[in-house]
Each structure stands twice: as C-alpha cells, then as structure tokens.
Amino acid sequence: MSNMLKNVGLVAAFAVAVHLIMKTDASEQTTRPSAEHKPYTQFIDMALRGDFEEIELRGQDGREVRALDSNGTLIVSRIPVNENIMNRLYGERVDVVDLSARDKPQEAGFMSRLFLTLLPAALLIGFMMFMMRGGMKGPGGGGGGGGLLGGKSMVKKFNARDCDVRFEDVAGIDEAKAELMEMVDFLKSPGKYTRLGAKIPRGALLVGPPGTGKTLMAKAVAGEAGVPFLSQSGSEFVEMFVGRGAARVRELFEEAKKSAPCIIFIDEIDAVGRQRGGGVGGGNDEREQTLNQLLVEMDGFDGTEGIIILAATNRADILDAALKRPGRFDRQVHVGLPDLSGRVRILQTHLRNKPIAPDVDVKVIARGVPGFSGADLANLANEAALFAARRGDNAITQADFEGAADRIMMGAERKTMIMTEQEKRLTAYHEAGHALCALRAPGADPIHKATIIPRGGALGMVMQLPEGDRVSLTRQQAHARLAVCYGGRVAEEMVFGADKVTTGASGDIQSATAMARAMVEEWGLSDKAGAVLYASSRQEQAMGATGRSRSISEVTSLMLDQEIRELTDLGKVMAEQILTDYRGELENIAEALLKYETLSGSEIKIVAQGGTLTRDPSQPPPDETPKGPGTFGATPANDTGNDMRPPKPL
C-alpha cells in the first residue's frame, strides 16, 4: 500500500511540474470580441467615413487589418498585395498602428526548451525503471510482484482439498494409470522406497493425442496422493520480455519447494521444450533460455523432496533430448485412444449423472465410434442430452446417441438447403460410386451408410465400417482406400462426362493424396521408394531449416512426387475398373439414393443386386451398428493417411 501511495505521489509531482513549466512560458491569450470580416474596399470606405479611431496591422506579414467601429464590433479585412494602407489613409483622422510583431513566432523560453529536450529521455528512463522494479520482485527474480515486466504469477495452485479428481474418474487408459500409481504410492509412503535406496522417477511425460485425458490423469495423481497440484501451461513461460520465461520457471519451482510434497504439471510442454538450435536467435533465443532454466531447475533436487514433475504433450518427437533423458523425465507414459472396453467405461463415467432411457446400450454406442478420444465421448454424451432436451423428453434414448454420433461425424443436417434435381442426381451418382467401390474393392472396409442429405460442408457422404479397432493397415487395404476415394469422381465422369465433373471431389482427392504420400514417405509401401522414411526429411526441406544440410536431394524429391502420382493414378484406375465392371449396380444404388436419400449398408447390398426395399421412403433406415463382438461402427477420424484410424466419410 505504501509503495502504491509513493508511486501516486511521484506521478502527481511530475504532473504539477509539467503544468507550472508550461504555464510560465505560455503566450498571453487576450480576450477578443467577435469579429466581422469585410472586403478591403468596404473597410477603407468605413475608415474614410470616420467609423474607426484606430486601425491595427496584424498577422505575421502585417497585411491583416483590424478596427473597432462605433458599435464596438471588431472589423477584420485583408490588405491586397499592391496596396499601402499607410499612404491611402495619410492625413485622415484615424491612427494606423503596426502590431504585426506580436503575431510572429516567438522563440521558446529557456525552461521550455530544456524541458522539451529532456522529456523523451526522462520518460524512457522512467519507463525502464518501472518495469525493472516490477520484474525484480518475487522469488529468485521470478516477477511475482507488480509492474509491467513482473505481472501476475501464472502458476495455478490447487490445494489437496481442491483436487477432487481420483483414479476412478479416469477410465479407458488403464496402462497409463498403472504406471502413475507407483508415483502416488511414493508420495504416500516414501520410506518404502528410500530404505532400499530407491528413488522415485523425478518426472513423467504423458504422451498422446489431444483429448485422451492427460491433464485429467495428472490431477488424479495429485488427488490420490493428497498433495498440492501446481499447474502451468508451456506457452505461459514464453513472453516478449527477455528473461521473463526463465524467471517464471524459477518462480514455479520456488513455489513447489514451499509446497512440497506436491505435483508440478506443465501442459503442452512442447511450447517451451522444443529441440534447441533451430531458432532465429540461436542459443540466445528467449525460448531456449527458458528451456535451459527448466533443465537447471529439474537438476536442482534429488527426488527426496517429494516433488514430482508431470508434463503433457502430443509431440514428443520434437522435444529436446536433454529434457527426455533419465534424471529429468525418466518415464514416457503413452496415453492413447481407448479401445472398445475403454470407450464403454468412459461413456459409463459420463452418463453417471444423466437420465438414461431403458433402451440405451452403452456397448452398442461404443462399437459405433472407434477412434473417439475421451473428450470426443464426453462431447457425444453432451450432444445426446441436447438432442433429448430439444425433443422435450425427460430421458436420453438410443436414438439420441445415434443422432449425436451422426452430427459429430458427418455434421448437422442442412434442412433448409434446396438442391435442384440435377444436383441431387449428380450427388447420388457420386456417393453411389464411393459405395460401389467400398463393396467391390478387395480389402475395403465394409460400408455402413450412404446419404445424399446435405450435412456440414458436404452434399452427401458414405460411411464405412472398420472391422475392429485397427492397429495396422495392409498394402491391399491402403490401395482399397485410394479406390474408394476416387469412386465419386470416376462415377461423375462415366455418367455425366468429363466436362460435367464438379468440385465435390476436392476432399476425396485430398484424402487420397495424403494416403499415397504416407504410403511412399512413411510406411514403405512403395517398391520404387523402398522402405525408407522420407517424411521428416521432406518436412525439413519444406520448412527450410536454417543451418542444416538437406538430407534429401532434388532427384529423390522428384522421384517421391512421381511415385505418389503413380499410386493415386493406380487408385483411380482401380475405381474405373470396378465401376465399369459393375455399371448396373452403380445405377441401382444411385436410383435408390434418389428415392430413399439414406441407405444402410445392408440396403445398399440389396439394391445393388437389383432387389427392392420394403420400408417407406419417409422412414429412416434401420440402425445396423453391430451388437456382437468383432465389428464396430463408423467414425469420422480425420484421416490424413498417416494413422490407423478408420477412414472419414466420403
């Protein structure tokens, strides 16, 4: 409080001094009556009539004339260039006074000149001192005090009573949970380990895709151990002011030592722990200084203080090697996407406090969404509750979950969009091409659903059913995906001609290109490119890494591009062959889509063989999410060709 009053007093004194200086050297301001401007000839006539007693010559050039008439009105005029008013009024009963010197710019006083000279330097020095004073406060220069440089502490501290998350609240990642239980046991019973000379790992790095529960797991560790939880994001260490990142690292560890035993959690550590040497500033880069300070602080305790560091990232491959070595982050705990049983338990956790209708089968829902993370499943449960609320029901039904899954995977229905008959027909044949390739391409995932109802940014789509939680992909399955991707474009060309193809296949082409690129550069599924990893080299070349020798030549880069083109062309040729051989089935599926708009997988098989459907076109297709083990539902996994998740809807 005293510091605040002192600062206010200094500011007030400075303001008063500025006011006095400016007031001392200010020009005198005279009160003038309202002026009336007259032409020069009329002004002279009034002077000759005796309306003025005195005329003043004003202005910097002395050519402005002013006079008060008999009514006290100020009359103002301008003397022409070739006119001499002195001669014109010589001998008349009016005095002409030259006051133009008053209007010429006056040289500023000494105090004003001195003030204007020193003011910029004084402001700059004061601003720097103000920031430095704020930055010096706090432990170890950590900026815990005020000031622009110091700012508010970014450490979020949760006491033991505030950490209400337990391991029972974390479902679907049992392997990661088991690894971290040992750390909890050490915090609860350290003597069990120290009497044998054992040291608990100082840190654990939680690695996994977004939304898999890494942050929740870290909170569960603190909750189970009953110790404080200190959390900070990696991006909060890096600031525009030099030295602020390192100061915040010191502040975090000083707070941890005061709160020991405790858990330190750094979320998205790749923001500060990225591999050194690639920055513009080299070793003096602010981010690298912050990382260096983090490494020093992690070496500053021997593990007996009861401080455990947890960090989360989904890019462990770009972290600095010094950060991952034993003695710092000793363990890397993989927190992956949940399997079927994990998805069931996660859904059960999120449905504990929601009213569920008797027809809801959690296992059926879980089978229909492989590839969903814990965050995706939480969103699914929430969307299903919103569906029930819109309907005005008191419980969430199985249909609500099906609608929510479709909304998440395919987007919301665009019910107000009006399509012409030609657009519907073209969309039907496009989706029929995808569906037929999914039926006939060897190794393709079974088809689950096809629709020409606009959803999200697409006019229609086809969903496929992967046979189980896939962990790998065969060469045959990869080529089948390429054929399915090009099925829509090939169908448009065959039915409507090459000049009538549309831009609707842009997403399909993007997916096929990504798949072919992964086959060539990552998976070794190209005979010409061989079993060599090119992806990282291509990324370095594209990023133009400074100071690094290129590990891929222009000739190799050209060969990779040619091989990717050959694979995509092969996928298109495969699609052309399938649609040519089964042209009749293409027509049958397209006509059925025009009539029913949405077809299930079994219905597509029936109509492809020339069969007829018995349901009314106004009724939705039956839900065919498999209820037995071994087969699972569709997912919109954002397939970029470099993971094993199911293909996205086409």
Automatic annotation (TrEMBL):
SUPFAM superfamilies: FtsH protease domain-like, P-loop containing nucleoside triphosphate hydrolases. Residues 200-339 form the AAA+ ATPase domain. It holds the Pfam family Peptidase_M41. Its cofactor is Zn(2+). ATP binds at G208, P209, P210, G211, T212, G213, K214, T215. It is a multi-pass membrane protein. GO terms for biological process: cell division; protein catabolic process; proteolysis. GO terms for cellular component: plasma membrane. Its main location: membrane. Keywords: ATP-binding, Cell cycle, Cell division, Cell membrane, Hydrolase, Membrane, Metal-binding, Metalloprotease, Nucleotide-binding, Protease, Transmembrane, Transmembrane helix, Zinc. It is found in: Cell membrane; Membrane. Its EC number is 3.4.24.-. InterPro entries: AAA+_ATPase, AAA_lid_3, ATPase_AAA_core, ATPase_AAA_CS, FtsH, P-loop_NTPase, Peptidase_M41, Peptidase_M41-like. The chain crosses the membrane at residues 110-130. Zn(2+) binds at H430, H434, D508. Acts as a processive, ATP-dependent zinc metallopeptidase for both cytoplasmic and membrane proteins. Plays a role in the quality control of integral membrane proteins. HAMAP family: FtsH (MF_01458). This is ATP-dependent zinc metalloprotease FtsH. The lineage of its organism: Bacteria, Pseudomonadati, Bdellovibrionota, Bdellovibrionia, Bdellovibrionales. The gene is ftsH.
